User: Fold this.
Amino acid sequence: MTSFSRILQTATLALFGVSLTSLAACGGDGAENRLPLTNRVWLTHVPKKADDSVGALVVFEAKGRRQFGALYKGSLLRGSFELFEWQPDEQEGRAHMRLLQDDKSVKIRTESCEPDAGLDSCIMLHGDPLGAVRYQSKRIWGLRGKPAISSPLELDIAGDVRALLAADPELAALLSEET
Assistant:
């Protein structure tokens, strides 16, 4: 399988397969609710059906203190994604997202917010090029371990998605009903 096919497959599996991370993130009011932004799946909301459009964000820590990620906007049936390099600024809560397709840099500002019921953490992501602002996550949506990648084209998270679904029976049940 070519690198391009592999990244397309894994990004699609990870992002819309779950649609169904450096900065410390952002949950509720207390430190006990804070989840790391990296190595975690973040959704705008949990979809209720296969054609429910959602946004997804994943940022991976990689070799050499680099970070890569993907944004997704769509449903289980259709959507688009954008791969990026994530570069945290020295100023807490700020970063640059370098969009790999266009080599365009976008300034990002983050802040915590209150998560919806059933979710553990919430982050406001101001500057998202796909238009989403509010992302949420659960503790069990963390992607196990740090991937040993040096390029976003090496992302291989299909196994992490399977582990995520195994860790979250509620999400897995939703997917099995819709597919």
About this structure: Helices lie at 3-18, 158-167, 169-178. Confidence is low (pLDDT under 50) at residues 1-33. The two ends are 25 Å apart (CA to CA). The CA atoms of residues 96 and 166 lie 33 Å apart.
